[in-house]
Amino acid sequence: MPAQDPGLQNERTALAWRRTAFSVAVVGLAMVRLSFHDWGPAAAVWALVTMPAVVLVLVGSSRSYSGRYLDAHRVGAGVAVLATGSTVVVLGLLGAVFLWAR
Q1: Residues 6+ apart with CB under 8 A from 3
Q2: Among 21, 29, 37, 73, which is 20 to 30 Å from 60 by CA?
Q3: DSSP state of 20
Q4: What angle do CA 63, 76, 92 make, to 5 degrees?
Q5: CB 65: neighbour CB atoms within 10 A?
Q6: Distance between CA atoms of 61 and 20, rounded to whole angstroms?
């Protein structure tokens, strides 16, 4: 069996992280849209919570899984995991507050 390209696994992982980041961004923007009627301009808190984390995940995944940075910057993956996890927790808590306040 011929050897496969070792860079493909890293590319798939980076693409998965990008999809995760865009999913978090879509949820944050959807929450802005859904809560704007009740909260007004304060609904921007959803975007303020999600967008920095989305940027961290995109940068971390790009640096961690690209071929030239793979060995030197492995710590970027931890940043991406921490940013995604903390954003999901904060979005869940804010969503619970939003639903409880209605």
Answers
A1: none
A2: 29
A3: H
A4: 115
A5: 25
A6: 10
Distance between CA atoms of residues 54 and 75, nearest Å: 17
Q: Tokens for 67?
A: 């071929």
Measured CA to CA, the distance from residue 17 to residue 83 in angstroms comes to: 11
Burial class (CB in 10 A: 0-12, 13-18, 19+), 30: exposed
Residue 83: which pLDDT band, with cuts at 50, 70 and 90? confident
Rounded CA-CA distance 37/83 in Å is 28
Separation of first and last alpha carbons in the chain: 60
With 80 as the cut, is the pLDDT of residue 84 above it?
no
Region of residue 100 (phi > 0: left; psi between -120 and 50: alpha; otherwise: beta): alpha
The closest alpha carbon to 85, from 15, 5, 9, 21, belongs to: 21
pLDDT digit string, tens, across residues 1-49: 555 666 667 778 778 888 888 888 888 888 888 888 888 888 888 888 8
